[in-house]
């Protein structure tokens, strides 16, 4: 696709001239990176990033996000591209592209037990909701063009799409995207069922359409009489996957699925929603028990609308959904609807009020609470809203992977030894080295979300007291202490042990201990043990056990301690 064709499509989605100039330059870079590269289907590779970017434009995302769609596979292809992006187009675009590249490493193996962790890791690694949306559009286009892949790969991708991507789209309230992902997955995972359901739905489609048109005419006349001006009336067919699921619940009885087709009335305001409902119920007799006021009582996922089912004829049931444009937009594209609003010319300060209305925020907050204690109140301020976009609600946790792809959830600041003890105490006790993303790293390395961690073990390896200063989790600390007690002390008298006991002689006055501990705290040295003289006698020293970095640091500590008021003598000794 050349620029002219691409530009024409962008215009269709109301991308403004200024952004087009920017996107033209980005497209040039993307074309350069993917030059000569082909997809399995034989098409030029660039057709894929272009398609992804157009999906983002259709969702009315901002220019940087559309641009990131163009470049989403560029860094994977040539890692140095990230620098070029940063230099030519700035931090925000390079941040988004980098985020997409990192998320590429997160996969679901399909094992249900880890799925929730995988989802959380996916979001934690993405760092920004827009990165998640780019990945969803990437996956959607891959699913649309999956036919040319070998069957085994196709099924693996479809399974992951169903378990991970569709479910994330659902969490973000992007029902439309979720429906597309589910139907495409179903097509490749359950082809027979797919054929059957779509066949049944298609069989009666023309008849149904004719009938609905007739109903629509009657409805329009009555709405006009009641002075309700609908913005749009349309109908949607239930998507195949959810029709299949429902059919299974009803043991294959099609007649029990009353919402196979729903007529949608989009009106300007809430008053017209209830007015429209009155018109529908005046025209046709409602089915008892089928009326749902999701405006007054939104669904737990935030969905708002009025639902009712009526007998348009004896034994013919039609479902109606009545909602405002805003409710409709959020129902269709969830989180992405936010950008559509700001595009519509609303000022940035409109952010705040929109933020309050967007129910996915409370969704995300609820999700967050599963892991972290609640931060802030129910009424999200605009800052909190922006925070939510930044996906930093997992900021106290990290999600790392085993070489097999299992997700391990650890507190922030954890090191390879925390990971090792989390897997198994034997792996911890015999750890001799750690590989992070395939590279050897020291045990003091702070793990980050998305890291693949592999622990190298050796039979004769044993924990060293120094490890106590390297781990973050209480579990690892306890297990190391246990192991240290288990092995004869002698084995730690090796020359590389740096555990030092410092004896401080002096008068134990008020604030004395605090003065001593602050010498260590200032140098960020963990005190592993402190035994203070009970009697306050100058003969019995205060004993501090620690692991200084080197001789110089130890000398430094000693001279500092000697300067403390009341200290008579300081003697260090290796244990
Ligand atoms: Mn891609």
UniProtKB/TrEMBL annotation:
GO terms under biological process: guanosine tetraphosphate metabolic process
Domain TGS: 394-457
SUPFAM superfamilies documented for this protein: ACT-like, HD-domain/PDEase-like, Nucleotidyltransferase, TGS-like
Pfam family, one: TGS
CDD domains registered for this protein in UniProt: NT_Rel-Spo_like, TGS_RSH
Coiled coil location: none
GO-annotated cellular components: plasma membrane
Domain ACT: 501-575
Family: Belongs to the relA/spoT family.
Function: In eubacteria ppGpp (guanosine 3'-diphosphate 5'-diphosphate) is a mediator of the stringent response that coordinates a variety of cellular activities in response to changes in nutritional abundance.
Protein name: GTP pyrophosphokinase
Gene source species: Candidatus Giovannonibacteria bacterium RIFCSPHIGHO2_02_43_16
